[in-house]
Description:
This protein is mainly beta. About 10% of the residues lie in helices and about 30% in strands.
Amino acid sequence: xxxxxxxxxxxxxxxxxxxxxxxxxxxxxxxxxxxxxxxxxxxxxxxxxxxxx
Length: 53
């Protein structure tokens, strides 16, 4: 049986946004063969938020 490895890198935009339940949907899948795929969660799971700085 084959084994595959993937790392899912998801970073927090800011501690202040995190405490207000404002999250970025974007993240990256990094596969063991060197392929990197930009990804995004469903807007049904993490709602789209408007950020005004």
